[in-house]
Amino acid sequence: HVEAKFDTPETEFMPLRDYFHRHSRSIFWEIQDIIPFGNSTWFRYLLGWLVPPKVSLLKLTQSDAIKELYDNHHFIQDMLVPIRGMLNTDNKGQGRTSLFVDIGAYGVPSVANFHPVHTTRRIEAFVRNHHGFQMMYADSYMSETEFEAMFDHSLYDQMRAKYDCAGAFPRVFGKVSRAVRD
């Protein structure tokens, strides 16, 4: 089966749900920033079984100064942007069969004048303008109007009205927005 695929050039596409979060460890890409010596031989041999720690433990032991440092010098963004017209395929990029590229940026920017809120808002605007989606475990500084422009809320609003959820549960924006949570 596999050898037959080598006879002719072929492009293979993988469904998003099979690809998405294949590295499901929550701090997979950033452990070197959290534990700088974590990749040394002696640490991995003696204490490697302790890593990766749960993010909830790291947040529980985080001081206000560390949180402020993290907010001002750290960047986490993960976006899905449609490929529309970029590949020579039969896929027209519409509906449930659209092709998306997963773009992730994680870490500590090395420029001196990095402004996380301004930079993130520019990226969010780019993603909205290109009909993409921001993953909501990433930092988000969108307003509620911008958030609703990125995600279709029509069915969500119908269900909230049908089951009278207004007083019982917060809106999704209240769960993912840093401005509402902080």
Automatic annotation (TrEMBL):
GO terms for cellular component: cytoplasm; membrane. It comes from the Eukaryota. One of its GO terms (molecular function) is Delta24(24-1) sterol reductase activity. One of its GO terms (biological process) is steroid metabolic process. The keyword Oxidoreductase applies. InterPro entries: Diminuto-like. Keywords: Oxidoreductase. This is Uncharacterized protein.
